[in-house]
Amino acid sequence: MIVCHCKNITDHEIHAAIDWMRASDPETIISPGKIYHALGKSADCGGCMPLFLDTMRGNDNLSVPNNLRNLRSGTHREISHEGRSEGHRVSQQGTPS
Hints:
Elements: E1 2-4, E2 9-10, H1 11-24, H2 32-38, H3 49-57
């Protein structure tokens, strides 16, 4: 079945790319972008993304490797203001005189 009409990608190609990536690197995180790259293509309009993701989820090799699961369950460090200083927004800097 054709999943992406813009780039002519089939469900068989998606499954083959996932299987190939998992076989070559068992610890890799597989994303749609990596699948497009493995197929030598790039995303176009994005209209296929829901079906693309459903096709990916249907592959048993998509799961996250056990040693990479629950990495966030340890200590949680909160970063405020995305690393910027306190008054980084215009509304927090006051009005000009």
